[in-house]
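does this look right to u?? magnesium ion version
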Amino acid sequence: MTPDPAIEARGVRRVFESRKGFLFTEKSRTEALRGVDLRVEPGEIFGLLGPNGAGKTTFTKILSTLLLPTSGEARVLGIDVARNPQAVRPRIGLVLGGERGLYNRISARENLRYFADLFGLPPALRDRRIQEVLDRVGLTEAADRRVEEYSRGMKQKLHLARGILHRPELLFLDEPTIGLDPKSARETRKLIRSLVSDGVTIFLTTHYMFEAEELCQRLAILSKGQIVARDTVAGLRRLVGGDTTVEVEAYGFEDAEIERLRHLPGVGRILSEEFGPRLRLTLRSSSSELTAGAVRSALGTAHPDLMVRERRTVLEDVYLDLVEEEAA
Ligand SMILES: Nc1ncnc2c1ncn2[C@@H]1O[C@H](COP(=O)(O)OP(=O)(O)OP(=O)(O)O)[C@@H](O)[C@H]1O
Ligand SMILES: [Mg+2]
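got this back:
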């Protein structure tokens, strides 16, 4: 028997309706999710990317039983989140971050004791487990200080500690490294990887493309409540036309020149963007034969001010291509 997928969503929609304006007579309606299908396998790190307001947090909240879908179905660890949330909750962890959800007047250790009791951790194991997670997130030294004295990053670490306290099988992380300094962010990514080697499945959202590229086996891009792409990083690169990117910049190009560039090895799409008086063309190619040199010789000597840069296509390129295409 194959194991249940860690997450399986089918046609998940969520509409927010509220009243606003004078005497609350105006109705506002936001369709945050417009039919999302997604499957995450046990043991993987799955990343959900998307612009502000795309619906990432809404989707994360539905999967973690904080919100109900308006329609559609979502199963987590094989259990329907709308029908049987109580069975889901003890097996998942959720880190939403932010200022809410922590008790400021007491210490981190006391916060964790409170949550451990809520999670029903046996008292004999409780304090040892708390020390373990404090070590793991790097809060041991500050563990007995009141949370109101904590910096934003320290609070983020405490959220993370709370999220893993009860050893969840599946952990939802909504922008886990937001507000962390580079060293803490790196330690957090290391922690995420070590959780995965312990067998935990991770579902994370992030705005940091390098983070998604470094951590995630598979990714989905959400835009305006719909998934616009879903693949491995390599698959997404192919989707936008390949591994190689060459940027060419000058004070304008003739149509005939752009045509010549279009016929270079493996060139799929060419994007153009204005930078003040200059024009930048971005060429994506599936061929390693597309080099800066090849571009220079195709253009000849017409542009004394020519700038050519060859690099590997990174996830940020893919993301911008896909999200902009969607916007167009
Ligand atoms: N409680 C709510 N009431 C009304 N509208 C809401 C509510 N929560 C979210 N929305 C709306 O749903 C849409 C999706 O919001 P969501 O927070 O899921 O986006 P997001 O992808 O997490 O964005 P960000 O990257 O900024 O965190 C937005 O238009 C938002 O205004
Ligand atoms: Mg969000």
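The chain has a mean pLDDT of 92. idk if thats expected tbh
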